[in-house]
Design a protein that fits this description.
Mean pLDDT: 84
Largest sheet: 4 strands, antiparallel
Order of helices and strands: HHEEHHHHHHEEHHEHEEEHHHEHEEEHE
Structural class: alpha+beta
Distance between the termini: 37 Å
Number of strands: 13
Number of helices: 16
Shape: globular
Radius of gyration: 26 Å
């Protein structure tokens, strides 16, 4: 959110809490190096690159969790795998980060936060697929990179890390979810920042768009429904739903895992899907039904109170070339009327756009980070930036093809409705952003209090040369 200035960290009340917010990112993100940097105040003479051969001993313990010297090696390897340099990172810093993860994971178990094997396996398949796609490697390359002998050994290693990360993130989320902030607290937070330390927000845009979706013919819909009904019949006659999902489902998030999802009433699935899922008895297969993603059938494997294990198959009706052509012609006509002055962009969006989320407010896009209409250029999604960076205020783009959230082809026109120059934070104009900063500060305070309390009441032991580390948190209980 900030460009050339940053808020002096003393105005986040406690410098020792900075890490705790950063650490809310899992080890397996591109920001792993950033997490590690703030783990300790200063470093000691335990170099990153150990020339001598070490015995993989226990270097620390938090509750029932032990930390091995090799865990530090793994963390360094992971940072390197993400393309980050480990030149200025030492082993004390790594250990500080791991200790915090273990404390949260330990407390998650104490608080009965449940992370199931099925949930982790699903996450693992998705992450491995992403890693292979991004690195252009095959599974053998991945196994070799992580110094494992077999795929099974690599998956076991990866499973443990993902489970630890999930326990850690769920516990941190539990700590900060209860934190709320009042307008008075936001005002007081802002007033405490010296003028010279106020953040500077970069150039911002307000953007609107009109979307036309190609129509799917009833014939294509009927084909998909018939195919799903055939799958249902074959499964009821003994075929494997798992195999059908692997072979035919078009849901990339569950296809490789046989269409499996675990969910409860609070799981963030779309309402249409959840309504059908929770209407089924154990062992029942739904009739084909439609959502914004396409057509589905659901098979409920197991019901455990308010939680269900299910598998589903998604099929997406094909859009014909003729429908694409008609959609393009329609949006060209809309643009011509706007440019010709027959109708305003906002009125055209309200009357013709197929995007429900923006249609009613004249096509105005909402920034998902800030929940207002302003997009900072330096923080803008690259795809959106490429569409608007060369537009003048009020200019309407040429029609172009894009994809919506369901990966379906759509046609768009887009316009910049307002440009806001780079400026120092203003309480009235930038209230939502300042509120977000103030809330993060309060969350940091809450995390810091929680961590200090749990360190005091949790069994923690640090061995050998690592007792010389100068940690930010009081891990040594001095």
């Amino acid at each position: 959110m900030m460009q050339s200035k940053t808020i002096n960290m003393k105005f986040i009340n406690n410098r020792t809490l900075i890490l705790l917010l950063l650490a809310m990112l899992a080890i397996f993100t591109g920001n792993a190096q950033e997490i590690i940097k703030d783990s300790v105040k200063t470093t000691t003479a335990i170099p990153v690159q150990q020339k001598r051969q070490k015995i993989d001993g226990i270097v620390a313990a938090v509750g029932d969790y032990i930390i091995l010297d090799s865990d530090i090696d793994k963390a360094l390897l992971e940072i390197s795998a993400q393309g980050n340099s480990i030149k200025n990172i030492d082993r004390c810093q790594i250990l500080g980060s791991i200790l915090e993860d273990r404390l949260y994971a330990h407390q998650a178990v104490q608080d009965s936060i449940v992370v199931t094997d099925a949930e982790i396996n699903s996450m693992m398949d998705e992450k491995i697929s992403s890693m292979l796609e991004q690195s252009n490697k095959n599974m053998s390359d991945l196994v070799a990179f992580y110094h494992k002998n077999t795929e099974e050994e690599f998956r076991s290693f990866f499973f443990d890390i993902l489970k630890m990360n999930k326990l850690t993130s769920d516990m941190r989320k539990k700590v900060v979810d209860k934190v709320e902030i009042t307008p008075e607290e936001v005002r007081n937070y802002f007033k405490k920042i010296p003028q010279e330390d106020l953040p500077v927000f970069g150039d911002e845009l307000e953007v609107s768009q009109i979307v036309i979706k190609p129509k799917v013919t009833q014939e294509e819909k009927d084909k998909v429904i018939a195919k799903l009904n055939q799958f249902k019949k074959e499964v009821q006659e003994g075929a494997s739903f798992f195999s059908k999902a692997v072979l035919y489902s078009q849901d990339p998030g569950s296809k490789s895992n046989g269409g499996f999802y675990k969910m409860n009433r609070k799981t963030p699935f779309i309402k249409d899907f959840k309504d059908v899922a929770f209407s089924l008895a154990e062992g029942e297969i739904s009739a084909p039904f439609e959502t914004i993603y396409g057509y589905h059938i659901i098979y409920v494997e197991k019901i455990r109170g308010q939680e269900i294990d299910l598998r589903h198959i998604l099929l997406i009706p094909k859009v014909s070339d003729e429908s694409l052509k008609e959609a393009k012609e329609e949006i060209i006509q809309i643009r011509n009327k706007i440019v010709g002055g027959e109708i305003s962009f906002a009125d055209a969006a309200r009357s013709a756009s197929d995007e429900k989320e923006t249609k009613t407010n004249g096509g105005a896009l909402i920034n998902p980070r800030t929940l207002d209409t302003k997009f900072e250029l330096t923080k803008m999604d690259p795809s959106l930036y490429s569409q608007v960076s060369n537009l003048q205020t009020g200019e309407v783009s040429q029609p172009f093809m894009d994809e919506d959230e369901t990966n379906q082809k759509i046609y768009k026109i887009i316009t910049v409705t307002n440009r806001i120059p780079s400026h120092t934070a203003d309480y009235a104009k930038d209230y939502l952003r300042i509120k977000d900063l103030a809330l993060k500060s309060k969350q940091l305070d809450e995390i810091g209090k929680w961590t200090n309390e749990k360190i005091k009441e949790t069994y923690i032991k640090i061995n050998g040369e690592y007792r010389n580390c100068d940690f930010l948190s009081n891990w040594l209980k001095k």
